[in-house]
Sequence to fold (68 residues):
Amino acid sequence: MKIFQRYNPLLVAKYVKTLFRGRLYIKDIGAFEFDMGRILMPKVRDKRHLNAMSEINRQVMRLQAEMA
Fold:
């Protein structure tokens, strides 16, 4: 499990895209699981988790589009 001390969507997206499957924790936000290079729906579905999930997934999609 990777622990990010600060929330930086681009760094988290690069980590998710590279490892493809696993778990991570972002300080002050919470824990996330990812599979197939995308953050999965969090178990805790509050606004902070959902916003972070969608922003990270957008960054992953942007990175994948740049690679293609």
In short: The first strand starts at residue 2 and ends at 4.
